[in-house]
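Weekly modeling sync, notes
Attendees: S.R. (lead), two postdocs, one rotation student

Agenda item 3: backlog of single-chain predictions. S.R. asked that every request posted to the team notebook include the full sequence so nobody has to chase files. The rotation student volunteered to paste the first one in as an example of the format we agreed on. Action items at the bottom.

Example entry:
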Amino acid sequence: MPEIIRQATPLDVSGMLGLMRELAEYEKLTHLFVATEESLGDALFGPHPAAEALVAEREGNIVGYALYFQNFSTFLGRRGLYLEDLYVQPALRGSGLGTRLLRRVAAIAVERQCGRFEWSVLDWNQPAIDFYTKMGATVMPDWRIVRVTDDALRQLAAAA
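Predicted structure, as returned to the notebook:
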């Protein structure tokens, strides 16, 4: 039976969270994984949604997802879409499901007249880098992610 790709609903939160844990394990980042069904549900379906998601479903089970949110480019003067996660369970990798998910989010970006669609990839994840490059993406060599979390975030905010 082929996979169905559809917009996520509140009933998908538990299944998505399980896949997010799998992604954290793959990326060796489980020590940073603190998301809960409640926090994910609120982020996707609460009064002020912060993100959206597509899920890939096979025989009633969620086997992949793409989580994305809107951002903005001052240089373009247009909104963009940022892909936070693209994940397909290992048994289905190479089946074209990741390609279908990525293309669906790209279609949403085009439909919304976004100026760009972007995401980041870990530098050691060569299979993902190869996949994204094959899909027409450019890995930006001159850009680095800057992040402030936890105590550093609170200290930065306290200086406001």
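Discussion: group reviewed the output briefly. The longest strand covers residues 61-73.
Action items: rotation student to repeat for the remaining queue; S.R. to check formatting next week.
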